[in-house]
Amino acid sequence: MSILSSGVFWGVLILLIGMSIILKALFGWNIPVLRIVFGLLFIYIGLRLILGFFYKPDTKEKHFFNSKEKIEYSEGVKDYNIIFGSSVIDLRNIEVVDKKKKVEINVIFGSGKVYMPENVDYVVEMNAIFGDVKSPDRNASGMGSANYTKGVGDSAENVKLYISVNAIFGSVNIVN
């Protein structure tokens, strides 16, 4: 994985730039953002070199930039990211037999529609930051969160599928 395609790198860079703009505007503080970015970059590269030889992630991710496509669930993929685009994620073919599964869906500056499985009990954790996540009976808008469940009842220990849906400056519509 290239360092420039890492979400950690871009997230830290954007946070530092935003914080320096706010601190300069409010308090007149001048923060050497470029030096901090280079320092964090070297720390990140060093940690990747040290830990990268021993750590192989078992999760796959799918990223969709400026696309309009339908994505079917595939085994082993745990993260779906829609960035600056619009996509449909179809989880109807997911099979949960023995172990629990967790799927994370992130929509950033885009829109997404998620089709949920009919034969599986699940819990959806919906988080919105300047965005909107809609489910059949609950919404998370602005800066909020909510949970949506299907077939759980009073006992959450029988649930085998956990889905986390995050919308940042975007919208997600969850459909049964």
How does this structure look, described?
With 176 residues, the protein is an alpha/beta fold. It folds into two domains: 3-52; 60-175, no CATH class. Helix content is 23%, strand content 42%. It is built from two helices and ten strands; from the N terminus they run ααββββββββββ. It has helices at residues 7-27, 33-52; strands at 60-65, 68-72, 77-83, 86-90, 101-108, 111-115, 122-134, 139-150, 161-168, 171-175. Strands 1, 2, 3, 4, 5, 6, 7, 8, 9 and 10 form a ten-stranded mixed beta sheet that branches. The two termini are 35 Å apart.
From the N-terminal CA to the C-terminal CA, the straight-line distance is 35 Å
Number of helices: 2
Number of structurally distinct domains: 2
Give the uncertain stretches in residue-range form. none
Can you count the beta strands? 10
Percent helix, as a range, is: 10-25%
Question: Which structural class fits the helix and strand makeup?
Answer: alpha/beta
Quick structural overview:
The protein is an alpha/beta fold and 176 residues long. It is built from 2 helices and 10 strands.
Salient structural properties:
single chain; 176 residues; alpha/beta; 10-stranded mixed β-sheet; 10 strands; 23% helix
